[in-house]
UniProtKB/TrEMBL annotation:
GO biological process: cell wall organization
Localization per Swiss-Prot or TrEMBL: Cell membrane
One term of GO molecular function: phosphorelay sensor kinase activity
CC per GO annotation: plasma membrane
Protein known as: histidine kinase
Domain Histidine kinase: 20-228
Entry EC number(s): 2.7.13.3
Keywords, alphabetical: ATP-binding, Cell membrane, Kinase, Membrane, Nucleotide-binding, Phosphoprotein, Transferase, Transmembrane, Transmembrane helix, Two-component regulatory system
Catalytic activity: ATP + protein L-histidine = ADP + protein N-phospho-L-histidine
Amino acid sequence: IQQEVLNSEKIKIVSEIAASVAHEIRNPLTSVRGFIQLLGEDGLEEGKRKFYQKICLEELDRAQLIISDYLTLAKPETETNEPIDLNREIAYIRNILLSYANYQNVEIACSLTDEPLWITGDKFKFRQALINIGKNAIEAMNGEGVLRLGAAGDLSGRIVIRIADNGSGMSAEQITRLGTPYYSTKERGTGLGTMVSFSIIKNMAGQIQIQSKIGKGTEYTLTFPGIEGPQAPAAAAEEKPVMP
Ligand code: ADP
Ligand code: MG
């Protein structure tokens, strides 16, 4: 009986998720359809054509993001466990966020050192987790501000990632609602981004700390267990400069 209850509960959740995927995807599809129709008009001026095309691409990206968030929800366990070169990944994530930041008139300041930083997990999921957090940070700034992105090792061998914005900030009550499904204060929000990010980070044995002040901004501190890089250079010790 217990198992049957669990199964029926699962089916209920799955059908709820399916219904909302359909709903979420329909919106961007409808607007893409409308703009493609406009693109077909005779004598369309160049500026408008570019504008319509830009919106279509954005809406398709939005649909894509919604789908990957839902897929992650449906299959949250991290199966892949590979070493992740954090310096590389942060640079990659910065580039992805950059076009979005430019569009929202926000700057990105990235601080990385040449210290090797390695963690372990699925790098595609890790990207998704950080991109969701970074996008929220950019959206919170309402067209003005700096997204700060950085990573460093601490003394106990853990890796600390910071993602900070000087955007709208959140109250303590709002922070507690982060990561719960469908919590969104945005007109076109899904309320799934943080839920997906948190589940990915927890699966990677990461910890999440959030500090925020209304009107000042928000700082995410993510802490992961560090690992030794795969090509730990054995010769490095000899190359160390000797104190004169
Ligand atoms: P969505 O972005 O679709 O609204 P999320 O789960 O990504 O859903 O975020 C949920 C809510 O958390 C947002 O609507 C917003 O109110 C709040 N939030 C998340 N990150 C920040 C941030 N950096 N600054 C201010 N509010 C935030
Ligand atoms: Mg979001």
